[in-house]
ABC transporter ATP-binding protein (Natrinema zhouii), 233 residues
Amino acid sequence: MTVLEIDDIDTYYGNSHILHDVSLDLAEGEVVALLGRNGAGKTTTMRSIMGVTPPQRGSIRYRGEELVGKSPDEINELGLNLVPEDRRVFPTLTVHENIVLAHKLADDPRPVEEMYDLFPVLDDLRSNNGQNLSGGEQQMLSVARALIQRPSTLLLDEPTEGLAPVIVDDLREMLQDVVDQNVTVLLSEQNVNFAFDLATRGYVIDTGSIVFEGSIEDIRERDDLLEKYLAVS
Ligand code: ATP
């Protein structure tokens, strides 16, 4: 069943026309990659879905309900949750306080301890302040804060950005556990190998337009796409 259906959206920042006729869909439980270089429009697509930068044209339906015109809070309440590129953990709160706060803000949260089971790294860091965490630890905290809200669809915006390769491996393992829990995921990435490991289908975006859509196997085989749009040679 299709849960998220984006049809021909056009999104602007002021007068700058950023997204051109972007269409994509996600089925229940599916992990879909949105691949593209820096500045291709991945973040803008995420922001369009969440109502932060709503499209001026086109439609975005979530379980049949139109999202365009709804506020980010309303969209969040429908079960969509964005883990932004800049991670946004509270720097002066501890890991535990960050998780408890997200727990308090949710309507029907998962138990706090479940997050420590899913992210054992965080268990060891309970009393560390957000600002003292490494990039990878912040990313895990950020994902935990999102997951505790029991989202049915998670938008992950470049989770590997700025992370050391060994940390990327840890993150992949943990996200695999998340994926196994039947959460629907839209994963934006420049790190194509990371996305290939987690996703089954993908879209390639370039200068605000979708230039290819297909299975991960299809994308993997297209050396031309990888070279032209994804900085892999
Ligand atoms: P990145 O990895 O750099 O975040 P991205 O694929 O997520 O890449 P976007 O952040 O969606 O790309 O940016 C798409 C385009 O929109 C870029 O040309 C960028 O310069 C422009 N842009 C992004 N934010 C703004 C803004 N607030 N005002 C004007 N232009 C913006």
